[in-house]
Each structure stands twice: as C-alpha cells, then as structure tokens.
Amino acid sequence: xxxxxxxxxxxxxxxxxxxxxxxxxxxVAREANECGEPPDGPTRDTESCNQGAPCEADIDCxxxxxxxxxxxxxxxDGMTSRSRDIQQHGRGQG
Length: 94
Fold this sequence. Notes:
mainly beta; two-stranded antiparallel ribbon; 6 strands; two-stranded antiparallel sheet
C-alpha cells in the first residue's frame, strides 16, 4: 500500500488580523504497487489563523485637563467639584 510523507510546515497566515487561512501539504512517500491501495487522506490541509487579532492598534483613552473648580455650594460646609472631558476614546484593548 502507498504511504504519505510527513506534513510540510504550515504556510504564513493569509491575513495579519481579523482571521485568515494557512495551508500545509504532503506528498506520497511510497506509491502503491499494482495490488496495493493508494495512501488514504488529503494532500492539503487548511486551518484558520489570527482569529480575533484586531486590525487597528490598541489606543488608550486620553483625558483632557481638569476644568476649574466650581463655586462652593453653600457658605458653610459646602462642596466644590470639577470635571474633565474625554479627549480621545480608547479602542481595542486600550
């Protein structure tokens, strides 16, 4: 009977992000004689790669500078506050 050789190494992924495919192949190591059976199985194998890898770089959120303090809410035991805006929203794992 015929026999397969070892699988060749996997190819480079077809996409660097958001998923792609990679391939490998194998050749016949020994052909079957006239009475034997050819090797069973595919000559090529495919698998997914880089699934979930984002195409855009991660960006951290950036906050603007603090705004001025508010006026005191009361003349005795009051409160003041201040805030700041989001200057740039985060993206990805940022």
